[in-house]
Amino acid sequence: MRKHRRFTRMFGALALSLALATTSIPALDINSNQVYGTEKVETPSEVAKLENMFTTIDLMDATISELTQAMEKGQVTSKELVEMYIDRINAYDKQLELNSIISINPDAVAQAEELDKERAKGNIKGKLHGIPIIVKDNYDVGGLPTTAGCKALMNSIAPDDAFVVKKLKDAGAIILAKANMSEFASSGRNSRSTIGGAVHNPYDTTRTPAGSSGGTGVAITSNFAAAGLGTDTGSSVRAPSTMNNLFGLRVSLGLTSRDGIVPLSLDNDIAGPLCRSAQDLALMLSVMAGTDSNDSWTKDSDSMIPADGYTSYLKADGLKGKKIGYLQNSFGYYYNNKGEAVENPKETATCMKKIVERAKSNLKKGGAELVDMSEILPDSLITSLRSNTGVGNVFEWDLNNYFASLGENAPIKSVYDLVTNYTYGVDYTNVSVRNPATSLAEMTNPRSLESYTNAVTNRLKFRNEVNKILKDNGIDAVMFVPYTQPANKEADSQNASYANSANYTSHFGPTAGLPEMAIPMGLCDTDETLGYDKEMPMGFNLFTSYGNEKELIEIAYGYQETSGYDNIRTAPYTTPALEDKDLDKYLDNLMEKVDTINYDNYTVYPQGKIQVMINKYVKAADVDESDVYATYSAAYDLAKAYDKVMDVLDENVKTVKVVKAPGKGKITKITRAKNNKSVKLSLKKLSGAKGYEVKYSTGTKFSKKTTKTIYTAKTTFTIKNLKKNKKYYVKVRAYVKNGTSKKYGAWSAVKTIKIKK
């Protein structure tokens, strides 16, 4: 353990602690030229100062808006954000075998520095200025390889940005890194690739994060960036979001462009965000959505975006008055290795039931009405609507078109080139391709076939029928639980007998093209029977009518606020905040303040509160500085104790007033009495004097044996009982009060008094 860097200070604290047990309030040291009073002052709160700091703990799960505000306040720079996220990737990704990242943008720090300079000049590019984002490695980022997880594409450099990536950059985002994925997005069960290996779930590193955007899901839940991008063909945004405690959105087909994204099936593929909060999801969508001339499917996108923007639907009372359908029979089918739906009803795992019921309860608590959809949208109707909607194998055609877009310098120019010339043992380059054509010219466009046209017609029928059912019944959205149990073991994830997905996962979003969101419910209980010795995440899915993403955002945010963010979203325990040098410095400075309190400056000594503060000081001195949570806790406890001490001391600050000495004394007249035994002295009245000290003696040295002293407040007084035939010497000085003591002026000239016979 590395203790906090204050051993020498600790000895002082211990000494004071011992002293407190044996001493009372210390005596006040009164200086002869001062008087004291009490006044009130105000010391800035250390707790408030600590809470206003931007620490690495604040980085954990910080929203994009919070990061932006921190940059605006100068609490953090974009460069520091990038460096912190890279530090986290380096600390955890390979060491824990998460394998979520394929590559880090080598220019990310330099790009952040430029954006910091622009911010300093007042030039803000957009809503994501200086925000680090991670994208799945099937998105083109100009100048970086786009591998789609395939080792054969490790040198396939993107000539330009994917349309969505360009929109992010135009809004000021930094593409920090590219995430691992199931190779060519071919699996929703796991995220294995020849270039990045198998991605593991940070909540239990023996388990899968699902796929195919598992790398993005793991990276974002582990706080490796502010937000991330994935793609969804069957469930590939929603599944990793569900298994990683995230919000993930499969948008309406055609709302976001797929240009510059390695395709799996453009009839299903969408670009969607994976985020830690509903706020971030709405903000990301507001940047991503829009018409792209290079993707004809998006021709109506601009008109689908609400005029007041998606973020305007972030309403804390977003659940109020909502009518939400619930598919009771969320389960009943799984997909075998041939991709066929097989009837095999499964019960929801016991470990999930509590959070499922809690989610439903919170929806109601927020003001929503839950409606059983068993008769409104029965399974028989769903099965009928979904029949004959398969578009066939469009993967090879779409992938060949993607390769053609890379230009003449691309190392891989066709699927044939990919499959016949590059083999790496266990890889997935040809999962969906059999006997590839040598060129596009030799292929028949699968979308020109009658079967394809019929499938598209049936898909639109599916979409329109669901839209009508929702409208006719006043249903705002429909929820279902997409899995019967949490994440499988990674080693078992490709085995169909272990499938745990619900039959609805690929229905409403991928087939009907409807928008569907994954929303976190929290962590399931452990379940020894099923082998879950760690609490694993689970979420529910929510779909609505075509183009109605704003409805999902409103419900999701209302649910988040009603439930309490910390109750539905928990960061993985395996990837905590890293050591924070600024926090260490703050604690050093606070301990210095404790050391240097000068109690002589106060009129009280709050012994009990000081003892508590010293106890917190000793604990802080012994804290393991590599544990940022322990350091923050120690700093907070000490700050709180320090504030309580200073609150009392500040009420009782000793005020100091310097008292000037009076002027030099003077005897103005000496009058002898008739009996010659006494004399009357007249003194000069001095301004501010409270009294006078008169000394008279028979010796010029005014020794104690021969000297008598008189104190008087009067300027005339009589010295009596003088002896005859004696010579006396007399002098006077004035004084002023200084608290409980006196401050004197200079002595007068010595006068002589002769007493005659």
Overview of this protein structure:
The strands form 6 sheets. This protein has an 11-stranded mixed β-sheet with strand order 2-4-3-7-9-8-15-16-14-10-13, with helices on both faces. Strands 20, 21, 23, 24 and 25 form a 5-stranded antiparallel β-sheet that branches. A 3-stranded antiparallel β-sheet has the order 18-19-22, with no helix packed on it. It starts with 6 loop residues before the first helix and ends with a strand. It has 3 domains: 7-52 and 577-658; 61-305 and 318-568, Amidase signature (AS) domain (Amidase signature (AS) enzymes, Alpha-Beta Complex), CATH 3.90.1300.10; 667-754, Sandwich (Immunoglobulin-like), CATH 2.60.40.10. The chain is 32% helix and 17% strand. The protein contains 22 helices and 25 strands. The protein has 757 residues and is α+β, with helices and mostly antiparallel strands. The relative contact order is 0.13. It is elongated and about 150 Å long. The longest helix has 23 residues, at 450-472.
What would the keywords be for this entry?
25 strands; 32% helix; Immunoglobulin-like; Amidase signature (AS) enzymes; five-stranded antiparallel sheet; single chain; eleven-stranded mixed sheet; 3 domains; 17% strand
